[in-house]
What does this fold into?
Amino acid sequence: MLVLFFAELAAGGMLLLAAFPEYRAFVTEHRAQLQMPMAAPLSFWLIDRLKLADHLSEALSRVHQTMAGLYGSKTAIVRTKCFSANVLTAGIAVVTGSTLLGAVAEGGAEMLLYGCCLTALLPFVFFKELTGRLRKKKRLMLLELPEVVNQMVLLVNAGATVQQALTRCVEHKPAIQDSPLLVELAAAVHEIRMNASFSKALEDFNKRCGVQEVSLFTTTLLLNYKRGGDELVMALKELSSTLWEKRKSLAKTMGEEASSKMVFPMVCIFMVVMIVVAAPAILMMG
It folds into this structure.
C-alpha cells in the first residue's frame, strides 16, 4: 500500500506539473471559487482530457441551473467548471489519503475501498450543499419580498415614481449584502441608472432571482407602472396580501422543520439520562 501511495503521489505530481502552465491563468483568476487552488490544475486537466463534461452532461446541466439560480447566468458556466474541479480534487485527495491510511494502519485494500466508496458519494454531498444554499436564498427572498412591496405601496402613494420607489427601497436599507433580494434589486436599479430600459432591467432581475413570487412582482410593475396612481397601488396591495400569506405559510413550515431537527438530539439526551439513572440500579443488582 505504501508503494501504491508513492506511485499515486508521483503520478499526480507529474500530471500537476504538466497541467499547471495551461490552467495557471484560469486558476489565478477564479482562485476564490476553488477549494484547493494548488491542486485544481490537475482536476481541470483530467476534466478536459477525459471529456467528463460530455459524459456527464445531464448532471452538469443540473449544477449549471443551480449555479444560475445562485449567482446569475453570466458566471454560471465558470462556477460549474469550478464546482466540477472541486469535486474531482476532493475525490483525488480522499483516495490518496485513504491509501496512506491503509499503508500506515496496515489495513490492506480495505481503506482504499472505503476511500473509493466515499469518493463516489462526494458529488451528491457537494450538490446537496449547493441546492441547500439555493433553497435558503429563495426562502430569504420570499421572506423579504412582502416588506419591499409594502414599501413600494407607501412610496408610490406618497407620489414617487416606480423608479424612485425602487431606488429608495435599496438606498435606505443597511447591510444590503445580507439580503439576496436587495442585492439583485440594487443591480436592477444600477442598470436603470445606466440608461437601460426599465422593462429590460426588471426582466433581468426576474431571471436572476428565479422565484415565482418575484416574477409576479415584476409582472405587476411592468403591467401597471406606466399607468401609475391608484391602479398601481391597488395592484401592489393585492400582491402584498398574497405575499404575506405565503410568508406566513413559509414561516410555519420553517418552524416545523426546526422542531423536527430537534427530535434526534432530544432522543439522544433521553437515552443518556436513562443510562445514567438505570446504571446504579443495574450495578446494585449485580
In short: The mean pLDDT is 82. The CA atoms of residues 25 and 31 lie 10 Å apart.
